[in-house]
Specification:
Shape: globular
Number of helices: 3
Order of helices and strands: EEEHEHEEEEHE
Structural class: alpha+beta
Amino acid sequence: MYQPSLGVIDDGEILYRYASPSAFPADQEEIPLSIFQDGKLSCDWEKHQPTPEKSLRVIEGKTRLVSINVCNEIRHPRNPKNGGKIEVEWHQEIIHDPMPSIDSPNEPENYSHSLIKGKKKAAIVDAIRRNSTWRDL
């Protein structure tokens, strides 16, 4: 049953981002920046997704699981071109955003759905990557 958002996700929590193995260039261990560039970066919150291997995204072929550690570095990114100053307009809103079912067996309710919202400048994408790890499911 659909439930409304629980609001802001605290630092120290883990968000899952699902990626296709083909998004990673051959022989590259580092997470590609391209998977973090969406203005509304869709993730699943570990707190409400205890079995990420059963996610619809995995069934679709996104079997590389990226774990993002929510932290102040992501939430309030610094501009390396401006002496490391925090740029207020770069703020990332990290929120719980449950998705109701859209009456389709292929798109069930996703209570763990969460977003990292905000314009993704290079420094922000770098901060997300620095605070992420990945593994294959």
